[in-house]
């Protein structure tokens, strides 16, 4: 970065009044990469702007945080996400836009990731497996790994797809827990069908479903920390099975 970004940002703007550098996924800067930015952040060249995009200030080194101005972006309301999808031509009708927006957690980028029909086909199989009387962990781990690998050779798209899969599982266990406590079935037909099937599965521990939700949240953090994909998936699925059985 000393010979690339940190050098280029100091050059005179070619056309506009400022040179702007955007570092996406700043969460994944290693110590060496982050430290190479310190001097540039502390004394940025004239007419330059550096933007670091991350998910949490806690993911950045204190020396990085102290040299930056924090700007928080809140999730967008579902109607706005749906309108953006329609306006930019990513979906053909308002019904599909609303469906994607409902699962996007306020993120247009996540909505675009969810626009893959293959993802919804896999979700249906995933929920059926999670709701089954017994979990074939080895087969399921292989299926998840294979589907994640289909996202491409680069790590970011594979990581994004795995996050979606783990998120589907977290949503399933959370809704299952709520329905057991008296809440109504969700309007999502696929999710509701899986929960109806799961309600007949014996739960050995009252805290089992809550433990499954927590384990999914832990898995999301491990994905963000670039944990080994195969090991992460195998351990995650094994822990889910043991949590429902009361052994976790």
Write out key terms for the chains shown.
mainly alpha; 12 helices; 248 residues; Rossmann fold; 2 strands
Outline of the structure:
The chain is built from twelve helices and two strands. By secondary structure, it is mostly helical.
Can you describe this structure?
The protein is mainly α and 248 residues long. It has 3 domains: 5-65, P-loop containing nucleotide triphosphate hydrolases (Rossmann fold), CATH 3.40.50.300; 75-112; 116-244. The protein has helices at 5-8, 31-42, 62-65, 78-87, 94-103, 108-113, 117-131, 137-149, 155-180, 189-198, 208-224, 229-244, and strands at residues 19-23, 48-52. It has a two-stranded parallel sheet with strand order 1-2. Helix 7 runs parallel beside helix 10 (189-198), helix 8 (137-149) runs antiparallel to helix 12 (229-244) and helix 9 (155-180) packs across helix 10. The radius of gyration is 21 Å and the shape is globular.
Averaging pLDDT over every residue, what do you get?
89
Which percent range describes the beta-strand content?
under 5%
Task: Please provide the count of β strands.
Answer: 2
Radius of gyration: 21 Å
| Helical proportion, percent range | 55-70%
N-to-C span: 44 Å
**Secondary structure tally, helices:** 12
Series of secondary-structure elements, N-terminal to C-terminal: HEHEHHHHHHHHHH
For the report, how would you describe the main beta sheet? Answer: 2 strands, parallel
By secondary-structure content and strand pairing, the structural class works out as mainly alpha
Q: Return residue spans where pLDDT drops below 50 for at least 5 consecutive residues.
A: none
Shape by Cα distribution: globular
Number of domains: 3
Main sheet strand line-up: 1-2
